[in-house]
Amino acid sequence: MALWNPWHGCRKLSEGCANCYVYRSDARYERDSSRVYKTGDFGLPLKRNRAGEYKLSPDGGVVYTCFTSDFFLEDADEWRCEAWDMIRLRRDLRFLMITKRIHRFAQCVPEDWGGGWDHVAVCCTTENQDRADYRLPIYLEAPIKHKIIICEPLLGPVDLSPFLNESIEEVVAGGESGPFARVCDYDWVLDLRAQCVRAGVAFTFKQTGARFRKDGRLYRVERRFQHRQARKAGINFTSKKALNKN
Ligand code: SF4
């Protein structure tokens, strides 16, 4: 797995940000996460080793982009054009970014974006119904070649059914981690899965989060077991659409 964090720091925007992992990890070093800065890795996609090969060349090609910030953050407006330039040049990779700022997407893409670039996936977070109803109509309209809805941290039941059309490749759900994690209820997860199955959209239950409720019983789940427990539930769904693509 390859990571590229061209800038670091972010500003809290919605309920899903309350216990943001960037803020939590920065707090350990008494760093202020609201101070946004360009990282030393900014130019990573074009850096080469002594043999002249790109340093960023992961197996499978997926580059998780801007995971300690939000790619469409206002504070990064002056740097984003250059980041797009690098992404444009690395069509051998697949860039995947997750945003809570899809409302800024249209003003943040380069002129030659057109109907989207094949090698860029822009994922939209919807942590509750309110944010789903606001963000997903914008997301559905946006020219993006690869769309994934991220319901993480899942903070309540969410009806995605009006938004699950053929442009959505996958829905990912998961709970919240950390000492102040809010509860994630298994019924909410199962309900999302059922919506995806009905719509023929792939579904992944990524992690339980730290406080997981199942059958009315609340469990504290240690960090190292959160992904494992979700996998053990065995509820991931691969749509025929996704199978046909592979
Ligand atoms: S948008 Fe993401 S990175 Fe930014 S504060 Fe919210 S959770 Fe953290």
User: What is the count of DSSP helices, taking H or I runs of 4+ residues?
Assistant: 7
Largest sheet: 7 strands, parallel
**Count of the domains:** 2
The global form is globular
Give the uncertain stretches in residue-range form: none
Helices and strands, with pairings:
Layout: E1 2-4, E2 7-8, H1 21-27, E3 37-38, E4 62-65, H2 77-89, E5 94-99, H3 105-108, E6 120-125, H4 129-141, E7 146-151, E8 168-174, E9 184-185, H5 186-199, E10 202-207, E11 211-214, E12 217-220, H6 223-233, H7 240-245
Parallel strand pairs: 1-4, 4-5, 5-6, 6-7, 7-8, 8-10, 9-11
Antiparallel strand pairs: 2-3, 11-12
Structure description:
This protein has 2 domains: about 1-120 and about 130-140; about 150-245, no CATH class. It has about 250 residues and is of the alpha/beta class. The strands form 3 sheets. A 7-stranded parallel sheet has the order 1-4-5-6-7-8-10. The chain contains 7 helices and 12 strands. The model has no long low-confidence stretch (mean pLDDT about 95). A hairpin with a 2-residue loop joins β11 and β12 (about 215-220). Iron/sulfur cluster binds near residues 13, 17, 20 and 70.
Briefly say what this structure is.
The protein is of the alpha/beta class. It contains seven helices and twelve strands.
Q: Which key phrases capture this entry?
A:
three-stranded mixed beta sheet; 12 strands; 246 residues; alpha/beta; seven-stranded parallel beta sheet; binds iron/sulfur cluster; 7 helices
